[in-house]
Amino acid sequence: MHPSGDMHKLLLDECYQECGASKNLLEYFEGHGTGTKVGDLEELKAITLAFCKDRKSPLLIGSVKSNIGHTEGASGLCAIIKVIISMETGFIPPNLHYNNPREGVESLMNGQLKVVTEKVPWTGNLVGVSSLGLGGANAHIILQRNQKQKVNDGAPAGSVPFIIVASGRTEEAVDVILKNFESHPVNAEFVHLMHDLQSTEIVGHKYRGYTLLTQDGSN
Hints:
Elements: H1 5-19, E1 26-30, H2 37-51, E2 59-62, H3 65-68, H4 75-89, E3 91-92, H5 106-109, E4 113-115, E5 120-121, E6 126-132, E7 138-144, E8 167-168, H6 171-182, H7 188-198, E9 210-211
Parallel strand pairs: 1-2, 1-6, 2-4
Antiparallel strand pairs: 3-5, 6-7, 8-9
Helix pairs in contact: 1-2
């Protein structure tokens, strides 16, 4: 069983119409891209029919699976994470192991679609992300870049030292978190995210092992 290109095109058409988003403004398309002979062909067919008719420049495409493999049920989330990191860093990362356009895919041959094979500067705002499931399930999300600039490049206000909350089931887990903080500039958003994470009950994260506590003794 494989996804239907016709049904995926229908989903794309309806999605952009309902959201009022212009397909011509799409900067990049993060595809499902499993590497299967039929599945990829159907997906590329849908992307071409949905986006390439009135485009004046190639639509950049790619799939995080070329970098990390197929993560099964988490593959859609991994694709979204890739796009968000791309937006934050200002670059679209290259796909691995792509050398020549696939024979029989006219849009790849004529340049309507272009697989990202080198680090590309981010210039637009809209990105489409597709995830196709076994049996023909289709999902698509439109992401828009946040234009709001960080205050003071994300650094916390003031110079008063503060405690960073970190928790792990092993000493190594805590050490990884702390080294991550040490190797990057202090970012108020990341600190806030870590605090929220540790204040939430996490399935499988037992109250044992190694924990740094806040001043009042809570984790």
